[in-house]
Every structure is written in C-alpha cells, then in structure tokens.
Amino acid sequence: MNNHELKGHVALVTGASRNIGRAIALSLAEAGASIAIVARSDRAAADAVAREVEAKGSPATVLLGDVSQEDDAARLVGQVVEIFGRLDILVNNAAVRREAPIETLSFADWREVMGVTLDGAFLMSRAAIPHLLASSQGTIVNIGGLTAYTGAQHRAHVISAKAGLDGLTKALAHELSPRGVTVNLVSPGMIDTNRHHPSAGGEPGHHKTTNTLVGRRGTPEEVAAAVRYLASANARFTTGQTLHVNGGAFLP
Hints:
Layout: E1 10-14, H1 19-30, E2 34-39, H2 43-55, E3 60-64, H3 70-84, E4 89-92, H4 107-133, E5 139-143, H5 147-150, H6 156-176, E6 182-188, H7 220-231, E7 242-245
Parallel strand pairs: 1-2, 1-4, 2-3, 4-5, 5-6, 6-7
Helix pairs in contact: 1-2, 1-7, 3-4, 4-6
C-alpha cells in the first residue's frame, strides 16, 4: 500500500482514545484519511489522539457519545458527515471487557457489555449505511476478539457480545456487499495493551494460559495494519471475513 491510499476518505473510529482504537486512528491517518475520534467520556485522551492524527497531516475531530444509545449513534454519524461532508470507513471498536464469574455476573453488567459492543456496532452501522453506500469505497470493520472462538472463564458477557459481532459481520456483508460496501471483522488476540482503564477490567485471565506460536504478544499497531488493509482499495474483493491477528494463538 502507498502512504496515502485513503486520501480524501473519512473514517469514524469508536473507542479511539486508547490502545487498539488509537492505533487504528493513527494508521488510517497515515494512509491519508480524515479521522473522527469517538470516545464515551475521556475527552483529554481523545484530544491527545487527535493531536497525533493532525501531526501526521490528517484532519481530526473528537466526538463524545455513548454508542449503545440510539440517539447518540445517529448524532455521532451526523456530526461526522456535517464536519467532513462524507463518511467512507466505520470501525466499530468500542467495547467493555470486564470479567466476572457467571454466578456473580449481574444483568446490568451483562447489558452494559452487550450494549456497547454489539448494540453499539449495530446502531453505528445502521446510522452510517446511507453515507457508506454513497462512497466509492464504503467499508465497515468490526473489532472482535480471540475468546469469541476459544471460550474462556469469567467472560460470558464479553464472549457473547464478540461472538455476536461475528454474526453481525456476516449478516451485513450479505446485505451491503452487493451494493458496494464491504463488511469484515478483525479479531485480535494476545495483544499487549494498557489495561488500567475501568472498561478494560485488568489483565484477562486467559492471557495466563494462552500462548502464541510466534513467541510474543502482538501490538495494537499490528491490529491496526489489518484494519488499514481492509479499508483500502486492495480489499474490495474481501467481505464477510474474519481476519485473526493473534500470533497463532488460535488457528481456525
């Protein structure tokens, strides 16, 4: 890929204030895209990412909102189009990943995880579809997770939500690909990220028992590279697919 293969395009990345979301925003900016950085509440962190995007020569805007809320999702997409005039790439990365044994998992915690991860992807995609259809390179990339395929303890809500993203990706690909919009899922696993944010829930338990074939953990930038490829013109024949980025920790 050349350094500006996405020049003139606009990308909206949810959960973009840190870790994988931040890396995705920066990678798409390096490709020349204008970036809408969406975060739920951490304005300072999102503003810091915006400055990094702008330092790469791409325009950036920061929008705060809760993707699990229908009105917020519609507003976020509308604001991006109002600011940049178009929307070409939607990356549904926002997620909550806290862990709890099933006996102590509250319905409120279950609903929060499902709401942000799965409902959010549905609501953001639905709001974005009219604009993506108007693009010559409309793309949705959902960000899944390793344990949706392997299972793990204390993650019933997280696994269910991420597995739902796999199904949503396939369903949207069937509906949208004939109309020119590709829909794919990137499934990271064993990625070295900062887990101190409350929504991250600390170090996942399965990291202690899962190993990679390459002998190390991955980086957020390696996940972002997969997203950048799927958003590019080189991936227009790729849709409805899951791209696993996990160093061989899971072989489908």
